[in-house]
Amino acid sequence: MKISFPFGLSATALFLALVACTLSLWAQTSEKPSSSATLSNSCIEVPQSMTFCGETISLARFDRRERMDRELLAFSYMHSTTLQMIKRANRYFPIVESILRENGVPDDFKYLMSIESNNNPLARSVAGAAGLWQFMPATGREFGLEVGNSVDERYHVEKSTRAACRYLKQAYARFGSWISVAASYNAGQGRISRELDRQYEEDALDLQLVEETARYVYRILAAKMLFADPTRFGFRLHASDLYPPIPYREIKVEETIEDLPRFAKSQGITYALLRTMNPWLRSRTLHVHGSKTYYLRIPDKERMYYNPRVTFPHDPKWVVE
Question: Nearest 10 degrees: CA dihedral of 101, 105, 109, 113?
């Protein structure tokens, strides 16, 4: 089939014109990169050292520096995940910090929670770990949580945080190092103990471990840097962008509620809202056995609506004016 070109141009002439135009545009854009292009290729400088739970971690050695660099890059360029992590922290960090403090657990462990669940109390892994602290069912039960078909306290913010404190304190009694405790949260206490013995090491960061565990503590450190100054990572949030705490009242439940959707309607809210405020509810019925007592949270009808004028940052460093 014969192809004709406009204005009498031959195929060769048209091709040469296109090449010339492309080269001209390339020259114009390559002379002076825009500020946005510079930003898109930037990275956070890896510090020489960091502290975690009062323990100093040197990041000067090449392997440690490069592991840390990888995690800083991940937080910098996984934009939606990082932004949601910061937004949710405004709602959950005040609760978690208080419980950590009450239980004598270092405040830095809130960053472990952050990388476990992205601060999402509904998080669930493909392996079956659930909640802010990503407890597996058996581990949750071991540390005092009810895990069943109608109630799963791994999704309960306060109760799961107290269970995490029990685990962390038990692990510290075993290792005497919060860094090893953090590594064990991913790999298990037994694995970390065995590898420290087998590899003749005292520092969990010097162990040869599977990739997920080898990255784990560095991800916690990167999260700590992120929350110290999100703007360094390119995130410029306003107070109104953050998720505020939702005011609520509590109802004491000592008898089985057969129909939670009907119960929600009797309280003037939807069943969906009831489940959102009480994510540990896992079915339409709340079974109460023996002397067990539950507390259901009902959002305040007036203050559950978004109002940017009363949304305040838990940490002023998270936002810009």
Answer: -80
pLDDT band (50, 70, 90) for residue 40: low
Convert the pLDDT of each residue in 200-246 to its tens digit. Answer: 999 999 999 999 999 999 999 999 999 999 999 999 999 999 999 99
For residue 158, what are the CA distances in angstroms to 29, 93, 223?
54, 11, 21
Asked which of 241, 267, 282 is the last residue of a domain, the reply is 241
Q: Categorize the per-residue pLDDT at 12 as very low, low, confident or very high, splitting at 50, 70 and 90.
A: low
Q: Assess if residue 172 is contained within a domain.
A: yes
Contact at 8 Å (CB) between 310 and 236? no
Residue 309, pLDDT score: 86
Distances (CA, A) of 236 to 214, 227, 231: 30, 12, 6
Specify the number of domains making up the chain. 2
Q: Which helix (H) or strand (E) holds 275?
A: helix 271-277
Range of the domain at 265: 248-305
